[in-house]
Amino acid sequence: MPATVVVGTQWGDEGKGKLTDLIAKEMQLVVRYQGGHNAGHTLVVDGETFALQLIPSSVLYDHITPVIGNGVVVDPVVLLNEIDVLEARGVDCSNMAVSGNAHLILPYHQELDRLIERHLGKNKLGTTKRGIGPAYADKASRVGLRVQDLLDPEIFREKLTAVLGEKNLVLAKVYNRLGFDPDELADRYLDEVAPRVAPYVSDTVSLVHESLERGEHVLFEGAQATFLDLDHGTYPFVTSSNPVSGGACVGAGVGPRHIDRVIGIAKAYVTRVGSGPMPTELFDETGERIVDLGHEYGVNTKRRRRPGWFDAVMLRHAVRLNSLTEIAITKLDIFDTFDTLKVCVAYEVDGVRHEHLPYHQSDLHRAVPVYEELPGWNTDLSRATERHQLPPNAVRYLEFLETQVGVPIGVVGTGPGRDQYVHFSA
Fold first, then answer.
1. Residue 7 in contact with residue 222, Cβ under 8 Å?
2. How many angstroms separate the CA atoms of 359 and 196, rounded?
3. Higher-pLDDT residue of 118, 236
4. How many whole angstroms separate alpha carbon 193 and alpha carbon 197?
5. DSSP string of 187-204, one letter each residue
């Protein structure tokens, strides 16, 4: 049975968690394939809000096995805290599986993340300082510790002692900071963390393939988004992994022939957190209005997001990069009281019109958006459950987006609740 990938198409915070939760009812496995606890997914179920970081959104369904794949970097302390919070609220996490090949985020990663960002000064990247980048850097340098190392005390101590020999030197000589005691750190993680993590550790590659071989539905869930991708995003203002749909193959251990549906998630506008180019960014009252109505603050960090009009140039590129088969538009209801809306249909760079994303970063920084203006609908969408209940101008806006990006819109979000959506495509 082919699988489905859900991927963000902008700079994150598009509402992937809600869509994953929506389509997860058809699935047996939901797999996070990259990122770490810098990703926040918010779900509203029966008036209750659940803010997830590491655990896949599908954990709220009893019939689904939530899987944290090998491509994720895992802070085991954060993972255990999230499990405790969910179980205290009656959510059973006992069937969750965590890849033994996933790399660990440890305290020295977080310390280095904070120090590196501080020393970058005005050139800072806007990292969440949670150790994500340094953990992926260690993975690429082949000095990282993995989840499975927690199950072998001798190996864990040996690897930790070796890596801290270098990390402590950097902390002392470059940043004038005290290092970490490898014995103290090993004792703490082996005594307090390893016994609690051990029941969840699994061969997730086999788990996924056995599910596919049984003809079950598998969903691959990305964190962050296309334009935060390490290779294809607005580098260097990106994350340290590959959120694009192809990342699911590497981060979960499957080949591309298993995937036949790729759903791209996009807000009816755009936001981003941290530094980096954003051609349609709004610095005026309209931007503040979007932030206020959309509650555009980070789930985990509480940082204010930068708002902007919908950028069809970006979406066209996201369609190419991810082989999108459909798009889900979220937060359409935020525009319920707007008289007019704008959509960026092209960029102008030094007088030259670009309808596809410029490849050179300097061009993107200088890009001036070319807008088409559309009428608003001044109607409350929160109770719409079918396409014919949407006002004509809302339908025109969505049809215009479809025409601009060349991919059909499947689902439209009309509010934060689990059931506030409309199936738009016929």
1. yes
2. 47
3. 236
4. 6
5. HHIIIIIHHHHGGGEE-H
